[in-house]
Amino acid sequence: MITDRSPFARAGQYLALLCYLVFLAFPLLWLVSTAFKSPQELGSVDAEWLPRHPSLDSFAAAFEQQPLVRSALNSLVVASCAAALSVAVAVPAAYVMVRYRSVVGRAATGWILVSQMFPFVLVIIPLFLVLKSFHLVNSLSGLILVYVVWNLPFALWMLQGYVRAVPASLEEAAAIDGCGRLRTLRSVVLPLLTPGVVATVMFSFVTAWNEFFFALVLLKSPEKQTMSVILTHFIGAEGAADLGPLAAAALMATLPSLLFFALLQRRLVSGVLSGAVKG
Amino acid sequence: MRRRDFLTAAAGSAGAAGATALLGGCAGSADGASGPLQYLSLAWQKESIEVNKALVAAWNEHNPSARVRYVQGSWESVHDQLLTSFEGGEAPDVIHDEANDLTDFAHGGYLADLRPLLPPDLKRQISRANWDTATIEGGVYGVPFLHDPRVLVANRKLLQRSGARTPTVQRPWSWEEFEDVAKELTVRGRTYGVAWSMKEPVNQSVNLTLSTGGAVFHRERGKDVIRFDEPDSAVAELIHRQVNTDRTAARSSLGMAGSDTLPGFFAGRYAILPLNFSFRQQVRQQAPDGFEWVTLPMPAGRGAPGGGQLQGVSPQTLSVAQDTSRKKAAMAFIAFMTRPDHMARLAKGDWLVPAGTEALRDPALDTAEHGWRTGLRIASDLRASPVLGVRGYPEWKDKVATPAFQEYYAGSIGLRALRAKLVDDGNRILARYQR
Fold this sequence. Notes:
The complex is a heterodimer. Chain A is 76% helix and 0% strand. Chain A is an all-alpha fold. Chain B is of the alpha/beta class. In chain B, the strands form five sheets. A six-stranded mixed beta sheet of chain B has the order 2-1-3-14-6-15. In chain B, strands 8-11-7-12 form a four-stranded mixed beta sheet. In chain B, strands 4-5 form a two-stranded antiparallel sheet. The interface between A and B is large, with 57 and 58 residues. Chain B: InterPro entries: Bact_solute-bd_prot1 (IPR050490), SBP (IPR006059), TAT_signal (IPR006311).
């Protein structure tokens, strides 16, 4: 019988994990490879993993053709603000919904579920008209507001689980020690919610960074367009694509998300551990 | 009103939360009638973007009171973007689009009828056949300025080796000859005579029917109806035959877009590619050193009108939004962009055929290099695609025609089943739009 300690089982597990990682990484690796290939290599029928003559021409062309730096900055501003605001609203809201059970809390939970069922196309025209009446069309703040509202239901849903996992007895102990409600929240509950907050920030940031349709419809001025919208400018009529520059630009659009995740994932893990010890 | 109050309150709360205050500096000012005209351009190739921006800069230099702002759009998303902008009353003043996309916008009252605005020079330099492409129920809703017709891009060495006659615009292959040449070029297991890229099969299947006297979309008693009789189906039957009977056309290319067939073309697996004229830019850019290719006219149907060389096109257009308060200025800008020399520059930048008669004579385009001359010579055979102005066409295309043509070309269904789907299901859709 093969047990967990069997070297064969362990090797099999690692092999399965490796296959899964390769499967996940394949599109990204292919993107990297494509970004460094010359137009002739891109037109070759013998697809190769490594570019024969690695070149930065596609990156140069991408930067030359479209305002990538400015659009990346726009995306960064929008995604960071949307993530920060989503968390600022979602943390206290999730806490209240879990700790103070009432009709309002149940209705809010129902609203969260229902709100997830509306597709973009259904809300975009009314949303456009509402934002227009507040002069928020073609403005990054309008887009941030939309992203906060759009992300909020899922952020709330996610955070509720983390709040529920914090034992109420900890708050009672803090109260016995003389902590007020706000102090308890700040010094006892919030540190234990760190992994939840980090997960919510990551979710909100990546969602806002990648979002295309709202940005396309709401931002008109070229200097305000975000990265996801700019990427489509490398695609022409009937699916003709400027593949090299598109891959180079897409690679650069992917990097900030990866970097952001790399920076925060340690906090995510350490937060989980600290929660486990205290729990 | 209550909903509006609620939304006002909601936005007010969000404002209190600091959302708008945080980024107050990012808020855009609403450009009213006093701001520059917005020009939504769909140019996407590097040279074309450069030409567009240079022309806008030249216009602004000479017209400080009617300045234009270049706004980059995308072919992928232009319809959704425009629809929302029109509904929200925030549409660009000057709109670059495709004639095919104008129908619903014109019927919706979003585009200005240009007839009272068109300057005589512009009217003259574009032929009647070209104006027809942007004419919807008597109104002109766009200035057609660039065409992207179908041509054959062929491997010169393979063609010469086969001994086949090289067709010219004056003496193109007939469809029967084309079938024979494809057989000559096919080497089992190594080379297919032709690769039809049929990821989006409908436009080309319909537009090529003009070469055999068909149209698919016909006008009967004031209404659009779909028929798929012999002249309408001749080209589709030929493609089906090449893929499924003769095996001279690659089955694998049926699911490909034009760009996807290029690697196989360069590797000698496909000898001839029916492609849009603009794909020559990609061929030139990606072709390996020493690869020789040639641009040929599409085959002609026997006994069909126009010597069988007609093909339907849906040109790129420049339109004016109905909502703009500066229609004259917008039209003046369009006239500037479509001046013969400017139109020729735009055509060259995007590797397309200009629609203006004078632009077609521009010496910069009249060269045999990269097949430019072939494109210029077939310009007089281009006609409004039968689908233009047909309400319900996008729905028919997406729901019925695309899957039906794909199944037919792949050999999953026969001609009778294809006809039933296209005609019966199609006419039901069109009827809904013509009640």
